[in-house]
């Protein structure tokens, strides 16, 4: 990976509005689900915040309610109260301000405990000698109001908990369902886009890095949609709700509680700046690990053949250690930040208890208010920690989205024209007119190449490695576009055809056969449902592959391991012939198709090749000159230029490049 690119990624923005807008664009089709989730979160927040207040009511109005003054009124008064000794006693804490104003002329009574006895006394004098001693049953009758109140609050609390659970379940389910749909669409778009990119893109980008984009980076976005997009509203609602609740109960106590907010903000800002670079660097190093793993596991056979296990292990150990050190830095920052927030919270609780406890002792506030403040303050810090976590998730999502959109914005494609020429069946005439081609700027691989291949002709290309043989094949199939000149098929520039339709009419048999995980028959028809099982068998017999397929335990349903590792090179090559024939191409390309086949297998496919090439324009690239001696023409390339053209015999008679190649390969028989 380019060093400057790494530095740019580490220094990238923590929040990019353009990237976020694009990410939210994927969420737009599901806006109604997200709105429903936000509504549920608002309800859940309200239900969570009401619980400390209910406990406060239980403590102040009922558990300690008997310690508050009562109005002594006539039994005829229409207020709920306790009947005792011909009078009705109405609790102050159960009345509104208007009702208190109406009853202020009535005497106020108070229950006082002296040793193990309770006395009903005048609220102003508090003299037990002038009061009335209450029996145990009388005292319990006065407390029945509290028992009923606590029971009512307990039922309300149970309902709140159950309803909050149901709302939480719905919110989590809907949010995760929506997130998974969004991530599915992003992953689908990314993979589809990767498939549409030209082969030149894959020449420059390691497979491991692309796999990281489709897996790890997409998963980071999943965390953003589930952990940030909607839950941010939840934390904001909780913070606002707590602030409002605390200010309404006691603004002085609230201001004491909020005095530590600046310390929290300072700690969060410092942590954010420190964690930013570390987190992005970790994502880059993880991509390096994936790239290295993919490369080395794919090439494990070569590594073991050349006994390079130790060297590769040390190389991976170095990359792995870099990631480990970065992970340690990240953990170290968390290890400082989290305890710092805990210390601030503990200090805040201590300050609250010190000040609030004094207010309770001084009877300026009730104990239930202090309890509610302690509960709210503890709840106040949880959203702050979550919002800090969200910053890291957002940081990761921004870094991942940069990489994802970098791929999605890459236009390294072979573009189709707007109105392509329709293809029914190609005749197979191929013309190169003054073609110049380079993989990299001005580094010409083909230089002013011109030739014509007539329908049904068999033309072979030979030459040393790097002469441009495979490049010609890549250009015919439009895996790459030329810089100068024209390539015509049936008299029409191939750029005028739809590239996908064009490739359907060209069959390619490569030297390195790629087989997909699946069954034998799946690899022959490549999941084309129009090719029946009977046709698969017929095609396999045609290319002499049936004899080895039939010997497999499950025949055509035999599972094929990754890249066909359980099959021999010859067997894989025979399957590639069957695959090419299954799609009945107009043009057949054989790129070193028999180079890995043993002599016995080669004899089997010679007959198949003749049948396969019959009625088709065939282009063969071969190092083994014996396989192309019957070609109609042989074109000899050297350093991107056509040097010789002719039949096998004509080229031998010229005693040029082809003659020398043939002599080197068959010098024993040549000089016999």
Secondary structure: elements and pairs:
Blueprint: H1 3-10, H2 17-27, H3 31-63, E1 70-73, E2 82-84, E3 87-91, H4 97-102, E4 108-114, E5 117-122, E6 132-134, H5 136-196, H6 199-204, H7 207-229, H8 231-249, H9 251-258, H10 261-298, H11 300-305, H12 309-361, H13 367-408, E7 430-438, E8 444-453, E9 458-463, H14 469-476, E10 484-489, E11 492-493, H15 499-504, E12 506-509, E13 518-519, H16 520-525, H17 533-542, H18 546-549, E14 559-560, H19 569-582, E15 587-591, H20 599-613, E16 617-621, E17 633-638, E18 641-646, H21 648-654, H22 657-665, H23 667-670
Look at the structure and give the mean pLDDT.
84
Q: Give the tally of structural domains.
A: 3
Q: Name the shape in a single word.
A: elongated
CATH A-level architecture of the largest domain:
Up-down Bundle
- Rg, Cα atoms, Å: 41 Å
Number of strands: 18
CATH domain class of the largest domain: Mainly Alpha
Structural class: alpha+beta
- Characterize the biggest β-sheet: 6 strands, antiparallel
Instruction: Compute the number of helices.
Output: 23
Written account of the structure:
The chain has 672 residues and is α+β, with helices and mostly antiparallel strands. It folds into three domains: 3-26 and 182-408, Up-down Bundle (ABC transporter transmembrane region fold), CATH 1.20.1560.10; 69-132, no CATH class; 430-670, Rossmann fold, CATH 3.40.50. It is built from 23 helices and 18 strands. The protein has a six-stranded antiparallel sheet with strand order 2-3-1-4-5-6, covered by helices on one side. A hairpin with a 2-residue loop joins strand 10 and strand 11 (492-493). Helix 17 packs across helix 19 (569-582). The two termini are 55 Å apart. 29% of the residues are buried.
């Amino acid at each position: 990976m380019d060093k400057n690119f790494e530095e740019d990624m580490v220094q990238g923005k923590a929040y990019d509005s353009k990237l976020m807008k694009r990410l939210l664009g994927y969420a737009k089709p599901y806006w109604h689900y997200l709105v429903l989730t936000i509504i549920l979160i608002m309800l859940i927040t309200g239900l969570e915040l009401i619980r400390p207040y209910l406990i406060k009511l239980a403590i102040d109005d009922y558990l300690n309610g008997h310690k508050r003054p009562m109005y002594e009124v006539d039994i005829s008064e229409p207020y709920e109260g306790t009947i005792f000794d011909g009078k009705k006693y109405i609790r102050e804490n159960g009345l509104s301000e208007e009702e208190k104003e109406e009853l202020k002329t009535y005497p106020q009574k108070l229950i006082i405990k002296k040793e193990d006895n309770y006395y009903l006394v005048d609220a102003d004098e508090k003299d037990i000698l002038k009061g009335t001693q209450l029996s145990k049953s009388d005292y319990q009758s006065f407390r029945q109001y509290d028992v009923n109140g606590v029971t009512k609050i307990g039922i309300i609390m149970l309902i709140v908990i159950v309803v909050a659970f149901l709302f939480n379940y719905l919110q989590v389910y809907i949010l995760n369902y929506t997130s998974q749909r969004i991530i599915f669409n992003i992953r689908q778009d990314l993979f589809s886009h990767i498939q549409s990119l030209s082969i030149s893109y894959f020449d420059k980008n390691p497979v491991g890095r692309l796999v990281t984009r489709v897996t790890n980076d997409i998963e980071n976005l999943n965390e953003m949609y589930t952990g940030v997009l909607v839950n941010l509203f939840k934390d904001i609602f909780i913070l606002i709700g707590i602030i409002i609740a605390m200010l309404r109960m006691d603004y002085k106590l609230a201001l004491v509680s909020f005095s530590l907010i600046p310390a929290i903000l300072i700690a969060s800002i410092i942590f954010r700046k420190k964690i930013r670079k570390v987190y992005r660097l970790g994502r880059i190093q993880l991509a390096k690990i994936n790239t290295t793993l993919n490369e080395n596991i794919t090439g494990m056979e070569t590594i073991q053949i050349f006994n390079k296990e130790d060297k590769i292990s040390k190389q991976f150990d170095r990359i792995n250690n870099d990631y480990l050190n970065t992970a340690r830095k990240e953990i170290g920052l968390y290890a400082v930040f989290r305890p710092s927030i805990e210390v601030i919270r503990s200090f805040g609780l201590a300050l609250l208890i010190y000040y609030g406890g004094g207010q309770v002792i001084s009877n300026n506030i009730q104990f239930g208010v202090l309890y509610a403040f302690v509960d709210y303050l503890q709840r106040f810090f949880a959203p702050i920690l979550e919002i800090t976590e969200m910053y890291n998730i957002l940081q990761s999502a921004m870094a991942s989205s940069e990489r994802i959109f970098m791929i999605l914005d890459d236009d390294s494609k072979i573009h189709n024209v707007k109105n392509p020429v329709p293809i029914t069946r190609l005749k197979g005439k191929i013309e190169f007119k003054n073609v110049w081609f380079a993989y990299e700027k001005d580094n010409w691989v083909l230089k002013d190449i011109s030739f014509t291949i007539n329908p049904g002709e068999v033309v072979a290309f030979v030459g040393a490695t790097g002469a441009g043989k495979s490049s010609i094949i890549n250009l015919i199939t439009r895996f790459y576009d030329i810089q100068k000149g024209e390539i015509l098929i049936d008299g029409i520039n191939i750029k005028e055809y739809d590239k996908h339709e064009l490739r359907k009419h060209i069959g390619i048999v490569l030297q390195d056969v790629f087989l997909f995980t699946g069954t034998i028959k799946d690899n022959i028809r490549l999941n084309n449902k129009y090719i029946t099982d009977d046709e698969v068998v017929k095609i396999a017999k045609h290319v002499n592959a049936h004899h080895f397929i039939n010997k497999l335990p499950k025949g055509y349903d035999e599972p094929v391991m990754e890249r066909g590792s359980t099959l021999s090179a010859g067997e894989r090559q025979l399957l590639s012939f069957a695959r090419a024939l299954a799609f009945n191409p107009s043009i057949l390309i054989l790129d070193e198709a028999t180079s890995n086949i043993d002599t016995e297998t080669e004899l089997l496919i010679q007959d198949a090749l003749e049948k396969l090439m019959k009625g088709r324009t065939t282009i063969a690239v071969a190092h083994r000159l014996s396989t192309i001696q019957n070609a109609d023409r042989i074109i000899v390339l050297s350093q991107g230029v056509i040097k010789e053209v002719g039949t096998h015999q004509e080229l031998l008679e010229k005693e040029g490049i082809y003659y020398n190649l043939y002599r080197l390969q068959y010098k024993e028989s040549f000089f016999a």
